[in-house]
Amino acid sequence: MAGFLDNFRWPECIDWGERRNTIAAVVAGVFFFSGWWVIIDASLVYPTNEEMNHAFHTCGVMSTIAFFMINAVSNGQVRGDSYSEGCFGRNGARIWLFVGFMVMFGSLIASMWILFGAYVVPKVNVYPGLAVFFQNALIFFSSLVYKFGRTEELWG
Fold first, then answer.
1. Is residue 122 in a domain?
2. Per-residue pLDDT tens for 33-69?
3. Which InterPro entries does UniProt cross-reference here (predicted)?
């Protein structure tokens, strides 16, 4: 089972090289939009603070900030190909990317903590907690698709 996709080839009639940036941007946009759509729906269905604490929106805001932090640095800047000037250079770009990923992971872990700590363990309606978690998970996947889906190494 370890190499069942080793012989799989993308169809030769599709030229991924010209469209990979567009495809990655559209898929990332759909994930990002879906994440915010889920949390807006939960906020409208459960408008009071007792049903869904308004402080739980902080995770989604931090994930959005981390999304912009991660995608503000190009892959060439991280490798050191296209960014050598400035105060920090390549190391600064790597630190910025690392901090962005740490904020993103922290938001994802906090959303799981909210899901289980505020909704699953007390055995109340779980939908608001699931909405907070799925918002952060979809923004996380959006960031990964947009950051790494545009590189040529992954597309062949």
1. yes
2. 999 999 999 999 999 999 999 999 999 999 999 999 9
3. UPF0220
Answer yes or no: is 3 within a domain. Answer: no
74 DSSP assignment:
-
Range 70-78 contact pairs with CB under 8 angstroms and sequence separation of 24 or more: 70/97, 70/100, 70/101, 70/104, 70/143, 70/147, 71/143, 71/146, 71/147, 72/96, 72/100, 73/97, 73/100, 75/147, 75/150, 75/151
**Domains of the chain: total:** 1
Q: Is residue 110 part of a domain?
A: yes
Asked if residue 103 is part of any domain, the answer here is yes
How long, in residues, is the chain? 156
Name the least confident of 2-6, 136-140, 145-149.
2-6
